[in-house]
Amino acid sequence: MRKEKFNVTGMTCSACSARVQKAVEGLAGTQDVSVNLLTNSMQLQYDEQVVDAAAVIAAVEKAGYGASVKGAPARAAAETEPERIGDRQIRELRQRLSWSLLFLLPLMYVVMQNHLGALVPAGLREVLAGPENAVVFAFVQFLLVLPIMLLNRKFYIGGFRALIQGAPNMDTLVGMGSMASALFGVVGIFRIGWGMGHGDWALVSSYSQNLYFESAGMIVTLITVGKYLESRAKGKTGRALEQLMELAPKQATVLREGKEVVIAADSLQVGDTVVVRPGERIPADGVITWGTTSVDEAAISGESIPVEKGIGDGVTSATINKNGFIRFKAERVGEDSTISRIIRLVDEASASKAPIARLADKIAGVFVPVVMAIAVSAGAIWLMAGADVEFAFSIAISILVISCPCALGLATPVAVMVGIGKGAENGILIKSGEALETAHRIDTVVVDKTGTITEGRPEVVSVQAFGVSETELIAAAAGLEAGSEHPLAEAIMAYARKRQIEPLLMMDFAAVFGRGVRGQAAGSKWLAGNQRFLQEQQLETAAYQERLDALADEGVTPLLVACEKQVVGILGVADREKATSGQAVREFSAMGLDVVMLTGDNERTAEAIRRRLNIPHVIAGVLPEDKAMHIEALQKAGHRVAMIGDGINDAPALSRADLGIAIGAGTDIALESADAVLVKNDLLDAVQAIRLSKAVMRNIKENLFWAFFYNVLCIPLAAGVLFPSLGIKLSPMVGAAAMSMSSICVCLNALRLRLVSMDKAPQLSGGGVVRNKEVLTMEKTLKIEGMMCKHCQKHVTDALSNMDGVTEVEVNLEKGTAAVKMSREIPDGEFQQVIEEAGYELIS
Question: How many Å apart are CA 46 and CA 194, to the nearest integer?
Fold first, then answer.
């Protein structure tokens, strides 16, 4: 199946988008068709063996609209112009509106000349006033309204074409209302002529005051005013996508035959050596081959502190080279680069539909024919009740123009687009309107431990050797883990490098997924893994149970190492929790969500983390392939589940969950496997994503309510139900103004989403960080021995300030204390290690 996006032209309301969708869905081989009125686009998947893009375009054109493949060569130049399609539409509407007003104002002046008194010159009054000048009076109006109708001929052409095809839309209502008013005026001119010829001056006077030419011009002009303001508001909704597009560099400097050549960034090829100077944006993803620098990755990761980079380190497109001169080998270029994939993701998400939009689409599909029937019926009822033709005609026209379903069609897509754009600005990439809607219904959040709750960078914190030296134990463990990609393996290799211990060369290496590794060295069989793995290999571990339990109770993962049939050591590896993980868990709970931690660690280790972070539930000892099974079990119990993981090992669980959220993996498989991607490596962004979803859905429901309420209220008013008792009757001009305002209000209400706060830790005036009225800043006072001078004071201050989670440090040299403020609970052991490494002693 091929996924394609098309530009669609000619749509003006949700009835149009519903007709286009129905036409394309009728083609064999198409599925997942989504037509978006706001972005004038259509996304679908189709079987290339059954149907092609040309057939899709033909189906759209047969329905009365235009279509083209987005990004097709014929359109490529136009789409890369500084003035994009949306800007061009705003300019055209502004010009059309200006010329319409130029003719409408004198038209209204002529129509109202009897009410303007001294503002009308006596000479003009002699030409226009009185029954004897009725023909001149009528023809002046006719000649002034013709240019207005010509300027706005789109309403008539599109509206009547849709009517002939059996699918009336907004243009049909507006075009019929305006054209009927103008035709009534033409009939009035003939009636005025007949009355003059037969001396019936009462007939002449009656028709000269009820020509409705001003209504014909005013209706289309007011609708154009609404369309112009609506386009301006809609244009603001795409600001996030435009800002992303501006981040993508347009040029790149490459080495060709030893010389630097400036080329278009789109022309880069995999393997090119790219030169980047200080202050320039990096044009592609790649690996540094020469030089060192610091890179500002805020555009991608949201991290404000520049990251130091050297040879062998990866660089990402759209990030900024701060202060070094580097060369890198391009690995992902053009459409495959990170920034291009993010732009495509946000673009597709903005053009997608939330399921709630189907309600509006279904209603809009039958709404216009029903309104036309109501208009005809209301006019006929008033005629039968004894009203004159002019009154009944005015009622029918008012119903037609006030009942446009435009607001219904905009209610959902404009809110979805603003919400997805708001998320993208804050590093939250939501892949579809459906995912955005699903997020607000979640009641259970399942969170992976490694790399999500924790840093994902385990460190060796304990070494216990039995029958061999520590050096031999570490060498053997490093040799076993040298071929593994498990995070624990990285920790052991890093520890061996730190101790400058050469890994023992292992033969016949084999990894058992989720359990451990085995190999041979010097004729001996070596094993390293968890307790279950060693027991499966028929090794006795009961003698070490107390040691294993003690490590697990501290939240340390034990790795057992065995030679032949004997356990020779236990390495304790710990992965620290992120500073914001505890806060995220508290916020999930405050939102009424049940939090479950899913981990492959044993129950004791998992329980230690659960206690520290106050996680309500934990499921421990879970193999990666079994995570999806636990998600399914929660779903069968009636829960709507969000799974938050790293997007790689957790891919099956992410796909199985109602909402899959990949954290900290915006450049890899997460873009494909999850419903939402959190570019920053921060669990709090998942909280923000759900909070944003709730705000968007609340906004959509507000929009739909007001769109429905507007029609429910205005159609009876336009039908004249209050006229017999209160004398209230809406004119066609008032109806046109009200219809325009309904669409504008929907757009403006959706734009309020841009004001949704995405701040994670607002500061209080009295100090401290607050979330849900709970102070999260923690303080400790440390008693330190060995500080003798100001230099000592500075060393201790620097050492403590560099600790993860420490927000403020105040060292008192005279008292020998350090007052520390923290955003997470830091164990005393961590403080002791840092202070001892700085050359001092922690007393208490």
Answer: 62
Q: Which residue has the higher pLDDT, 77 or 573?
A: 573
Cross-sheet strand order for the sheet of 676-678: 428-430, 676-678, 659-663, 641-645, 444-448, 594-598, 617-619
Nearest to 436 by CA among 74, 82, 696, 686: 696
Degrees, nearest 5: CA angle 842-843-844:
100
Q: What's 552's DSSP letter?
A: H
Predicted local confidence at residue 751, as pLDDT: 78
Distance CA 579, CA 573 (A): 19
DSSP 3-state assignment of 425? helix
Task: Return the SS3 of 539.
Answer: coil
Would strands 524-529 and 320-321 be described as parallel, antiparallel, or unpaired? Answer: unpaired
Tokens of residue 105, six digits: 């104002």
pLDDT digits (tens, 9 = 90+) for 629-661: 888 888 888 899 998 887 556 767 887 888 888
Please name which of 30, 83, 89 lies closest in space to residue 55, comparing C-alpha atoms.
30
* Beta carbons of 361 and 305 less than 8 angstroms apart: no
Alpha helices in 82-166, H assignment, sequence order? 85-111, 122-128, 134-151, 153-164
Alpha carbons 843 and 818: distance in angstroms, whole number: 11
Among residues 233, 270, 275, 286, the alpha carbon closest in space to that of 251 is found at 275
For 228-268, give the DSSP string: HHHHHHHHHHTHHHHHHHHHS-SEEEEEETTEEEEEEGGG-
Residue 548 CB contacts under 8 Å (≥ 6 apart), including other chains: 531, 541, 558, 560, 570
Report how far apart, in Å, the C-alpha atoms of 397 and of each of 141, 160, 367, 471, 717 are.
19, 16, 16, 92, 13
Q: Which residue has the tokens 């409705």?
A: 212
User: Which residue type, as a one-letter code, is found at position 782?
Assistant: L
Interatomic CA distance for residues 748 and 225, integer angstroms: 15
Exposure of 224 by Cβ count < 10 A (0-12 exposed, 13-18 middle, 19+ buried)? buried
The pLDDT, as a whole number, for residue 775 is: 36
Residue 791 amino acid letter = H
What is the residue whose two structure tokens read 């005393």? 828
Dihedral, CA atoms, 458, 460, 466, 472, nearest 10 degrees? Answer: 110
Which amino acid belongs to residue 652? P
CA dihedral 134, 139, 145, 149 (to 10 degrees): 130
Dist CA 280 CA 315 (whole Å):
13
**Measured distance CA(266)–CA(277) in Å, rounded:** 19
- Helices 487-499/470-481 angle, 10° precision: 140
Is residue 412 within 8 A of residue 354, CB to CB? The reply is yes
Question: How many C-beta neighbours within 10 Å does residue 754 have?
Answer: 15
Residue 543: strand, helix, or coil: helix
Q: What is the pLDDT of residue 348?
A: 62
Q: How far apart are CA 699 and CA 745, in angstroms?
A: 12
Please, which residues have CB within 8 angstroms of residue 292's CB and are 6 or more apart in sequence?
308, 309, 310, 311, 324, 326
Backbone angles phi, psi at 781, to 5 degrees: -115, 120
* Alpha-carbon dihedral angle through residues 72, 75, 77, 79, given to the nearest 10 degrees: -100
Indicate which residues carry an active-site annotation: 448
- Report how far residue 100's alpha carbon sits from residue 106's, in angstroms, rounded to the nearest whole number: 11
Specify which of 168-172, 364-368, 817-821 reaches the highest per-range mean pLDDT: 817-821
Round to whole Å and give the CA distance between 176 and 184.
12
Provide the token pair at 421.
């754009």
